[in-house]
Model the fold of this input.
Amino acid sequence: MRRTRWLSADEQRTWRAFLDATQLFFGQIDHQLQLQAKMPHAYYEVLVRLSETPLRRLRMGDLATTSLSSKSRISHAVARLEEAGWVRRERSGGDGRGLVAVLTDSGLAALRAAAPGHVEQVRAHLFDRLTPAQVAALGEISEAIAAPLRAGRSACGDPPCGAERTGDDA
Done:
């Protein structure tokens, strides 16, 4: 039987501070995007990912991977973005079997309209509160946390190794 390595008091304080900071930060970011751009942060990220690709298009599976989302969540998000006229789905030109999400001109315009307010919120609630040394440290810490999780995700698929599939992810 494996022994649980409980958090020390300092680790517990750090963990709670990290949870509070990330939940409050992303709550603020999502609220601003909902209020000003009428879209949740997850949809904004889909538009961003598509805007950064050649011809503003990605296979649905690749979009899920780059967005760090499940295929079912990406499918749902793209369906909502299609309803808004911001994304359309097409058959893959290569094999005709897969679907490709394509950012429409209207979607690009919506992204361009939302971006300034989003960037202002990120700057106000993250970068403006940190010193340059803290920004560098945050980048290093974030990469130290994300790199092995990202590697585990790509090695094991969706969801990551050891995670149970729920009806949402299946």
Notes: The domain at 26-117 is CATH 1.10.10.10 (Arc Repressor Mutant, subunit A). The two ends are 31 Å apart (CA to CA).
